[in-house]
Amino acid sequence: MSHSDNAQGDNMGATAVPSRKKTKATPQAKPALKKEVPAEVRANAAQPSAKGSDITAFDAHIWKEGNHFNLYDKLGAQIMEQGGHKGVRFAVWAPNADKVSVIGDFNGWNKTATPLFMREDGTGIWEGFVPNIGHGQSYKYAIRSRQGWELEKADPVGFHTEVPPKSASIVWDISYAWNDQAWMAKRQKLNAHDRPISVYEVHLGSWMRSPDEGHRSLTYVELADKLVGYVAKMGYTHVELMPVMAHPFQGSWGYQTLGYFAPASFFGSPQDLMYLIDKFHHNDIAVILDWVPSHFPNDGHGLYKFDGTHLYEHEDQRKGFHPDWKSSIFNYGRVEVKSFLTSSAVFWCDKYHADGLRVDGVASMLYLDYSRQEGEWIPNCYGGRENLEAIHFLQRLNEVVYGAHPGIQMIAEESTAWTKVSKPVWDGGLGFGFKWNMGWMHDTLMYFSKDPVHRKFHHNQLTFGLLYAFTENFMMSLSHDEVVHGKGALLRKMPGDEWQKFANLRLLFGYMFGQPGKKLHFMGGEFGQWDEWCYEKSLDWHLLEWDPHKGAQRWMQDLNAMYRREPALYEDDFSGNGFEWIDCGDWENSVLLFLRKTADRSQDVLVVCNFTPVVREYRVGVPHGGMWRELLNSDGKEYWGGGIGNGGRVHTDPVGAHGRGQSLWLKLPPLGVIFLKREA
User: Fold this and answer.
1) I need a surface site. Which of 253, 348, 468, 518 has the fewest CB within 10 A?
2) Nearest one of 375, 411, 383, 464 to 287, comparing CA atoms
3) Which residues have a Cβ under 8 Å from the Cβ of 638 and sit 6 or more positions away?
4) d(CA 384, CA 368)
5) Mean pLDDT of the 157-173 span
6) Catalytic: 360?
7) pLDDT of the residue at 44
8) Distance between CA 303 and CA 310 in Å, rounded?
9) What is the pLDDT of residue 655?
């Protein structure tokens, strides 16, 4: 889980709402409302539309059955014209509230000045039109619960928020003139399973910081200049942004989300984020957004006990409280909550042109006993530990989002052996497009942490993953989770002296690119960041003044370029047809030999890995005779290697090896990986 070690979250506990400096109240403002609203207050209140609400009877019907998936067009603060007056129609779901009003600068934050009125169709939605206000207006909902509690809540469907620690929503027109039509037309092809997908995972607040102004984070607009150019230069096909949805505490890295329809205001406006995504698309880079439907923080202005009751979260703490993150778990059995979350997912693909969502914490959603001891959880109706309501939600979520936006990809962070996570719903699966391969990550990093002299005793940690590699559509991830909370940076995980550490890092990345499955790397690893990641400071870009780090960065750049050129490395990642062992059993020498294959076998790529610091002369059986060319060698001097290799080309001998009639006599560089391809 992306924040499993970050238990503090975003102001956990129902925090008090910050007091606001009151401005002079409007003349019509009155004391606390009675059940009978005085006429003079009603005249200045938020009125239902005289023309009829934009929330139609059909909207109400599908809302109540849990099938409303564009709530962002109906709820929240909708800028519109009514009765010849420009203004804002507010609509909020609070079925158990006694009274709801809108407060803001426009009425002096007076809770009695602008009441909303509950619809009479059983939706539990309060609504009303406020004339003569619009874009940029800060507001909240003042809610009186049936227990008499006075609450001030941000808008669950608000499009923009104040910069924390302020917590009001902001009325915002999110229209934007997109210029990515060419990208959107070809996205479905470039984002498909048979295409190269190399993802650069980024935390926007710490990728790079301004050297001036106290080393502040860069804005969305500044990142559109610096980050987009860097990702393009490095050859990544995709970027994954750690949660950009509004969150009150940056130390949660965004995984304690409160604004399911609003981007983080730390970095700029909604249109600024759209501009950043637009710029990525202009460079043919897909954008994946990290999205968190697994839980939410208990801040007083947020979703927690929104109308005085457990509205969004499950009331029973055995299902509604997350013991790891001290946060609330959504009630996936409530149809309105399912519509809310699904609408959020659709929203980011619709209004922000996201090319995919990486869904955080799927494992914690699937199991009722996740991180719970015996007696701390409730079995399902069949007596099992599976969360049937969450399973149904995830399946329906994927059906809806793929149906609305066929060119996107839904990616599951799921760390258990749950079957068919990335298989279609009609086949009994959860319906995701990809699943992070957490097992491969764990085994591989454990292996690489071993001193090479001991690696032969752990050889199975490299080969075991191929026993299940084609059971899911796997994405191999070396994410932020592996470089935080004392785990150390990837480079520091590597054993040996400085030369061996960098050689091991290059070997790790090369081995990863050779394996079947899509790729994901966290920022900083590509140039050998020494320190583990810290969200409060920039990556150590000054390290690129030194040759070892420049070499590591160039290696990643060249890996991405080769990966995109060679169809054998990406066309058939999810079946055994695209992979073939030549020798997986040479544990004594810690050598792996395998082929990545194309359907017609004309562009096969041979991958040879030597996991020891010893130069080896090695005969390798190959399927085709002729000249084989080195595509890449991780020991190249341009990568700060020793330059040991095969002169760029080597011809086969009619000598049998590994069950094949032709073979290559190769020099294997120490702690190195080489890629070879037969010349036509």
Assistant:
1) 468
2) 411
3) 551, 554
4) 9
5) 96
6) yes
7) 41
8) 9
9) 96
| Domain topology for 39-170 | Immunoglobulin-like (2.60.40)
Alpha carbon 93 to its chain's center:
27
Distance CA 62, CA 123 (A): 10
The predicted pLDDT at position 39 comes to: 43
For 185, the token pair is 């037309």
Burial (Cβ within 10 Å: 0-12, 13-18, ≥19) of residue 643: exposed
Alpha-carbon distance values, 422 to 57, 413, 583 (Å)? 36, 11, 29
413 is catalytic: yes
Cβ contacts of 596 within 8 Å, gap of 6 or more: 514, 516, 566, 568, 569, 578, 579, 604, 605, 607
Which tokens sit at 166?
A: 């302020």
Catalytic residue among 336, 360, 443, 630: 360
pLDDT tens digits along 256-286: 899 999 999 999 999 999 999 999 999 999 9
Q: Which of 10, 355, 413, 481 is catalytic?
A: 413
pLDDT tens digit string along 220-260?
Answer: 999 999 999 999 999 999 999 999 999 987 878 888 899 99
- Give the residue carrying structure tokens 């759209």: 274
Q: Which residue has the tokens 């980050």?
A: 227
Locate the domains of the chain by residue range: 39-170, 439-475+489-517+544-680
Radius of gyration over alpha carbons of the chain, in Å?
28
Lowest-pLDDT choice from 32-36, 422-426, 589-593: 32-36
Question: Would the pTM of this model clear 0.85, i.e. be above it?
Answer: yes
The type of residue at 524 is G
| CATH number of the 439-475+489-517+544-680 domain | 2.60.40.1180
Do 39-170 and 439-475+489-517+544-680 show the same overall fold? yes
